[in-house]
Amino acid sequence: MINKDKKIAAFNPDDVALAGSNIFGLPFTAEESEIILIPVPWEVTVSYSVGTAQAPEAILKASHQVDLFHLFHESVWKQGIYMEPVSEELKDINRAMRSKAEKYLAELVTGKLGKKARAWLEEINAACHYMNDWVRQRAMHHLNQGRLVGVVGGDHSTPLGLIQALSQVHSAFSILQVDAHCDLRQAYEGFMYSHASVMFNAVQLRPVTNLVQVGVRDLCAAEYDFIEKSGNRVACFHNEYLSTEKFSGRSWKSLVDTIVSHLGEAVYISFDIDGLEPSYCPHTGTPVPGGLTYNEAVYLIRRVVESGRKIIGFDLNEVGVGPTEWDANVGARVLFELCAWTGISRQKNPSPQVSKRKRNRKTSQ
Ligand SMILES: [Mn+2]
Question: How far apart are CA 17 and CA 22, in angstroms?
Answer without folding.
Answer: 9
